[in-house]
Amino acid sequence: MIAIGPAMASQPAWLKAATIIVGTFILEDVATVLSAIAARAGEVSVPLALGALYFGVAVGDLGLYGLGAAGARWPYLRRFLTLPKRERTQDWFSTNVIRIVAISRFVPGARLPLYTACGFFHAPFLRFALTAVLATLVWTTCLFLLAMRVGGWLLAHQGGWRWAGLAGFVLCIVVVGHLIARLQTVSK
């Protein structure tokens, strides 16, 4: 996703930002960790990395809402969505949209079904968007700072093994997220 090294350092800022933004659409937590490590290594500036991350994650979240809204309109798309049962659901999503969005930002695997459900059940868009952006700012900043610290330590102290440590750190983020998401589906 993000190439850390001299190849990235020589790229124009717009290309670095575009790479980070596209990375958020694929795996946003991994894009965040790799961007933080690239920033720590001096390959990309912190403001550019964070700005691109905020933009990419927010656009992705709003896109999930839009996907849900499109599914409500077109039955063909509905079959691709995982949605809760309809009984009183629209009222519940409208009433609890801030809580739903804020909590699901911090629970791996929850954003896709809940954000699309918010769109599908017509939760108030403005409340959804503002909460999604604020939760993104908090979560992405915290994960970015953690990854900068851990990534910086790995880059400074692990010598030739630093790349293995960085790969292990990224893999750990992905695996933990998948395990938590799997536990949620098993417990339902």
TrEMBL record:
The chain crosses the membrane at residues 51-76, 125-148, 160-181. It is a multi-pass membrane protein. Residues 45-144 form the VTT domain. It holds the Pfam family VTT_dom. It is found in: Cell membrane. Keywords: Cell membrane, Membrane, Transmembrane, Transmembrane helix. This is VTT domain-containing protein. The lineage of its organism: Bacteria, Pseudomonadati, Pseudomonadota, Alphaproteobacteria, Acetobacterales.
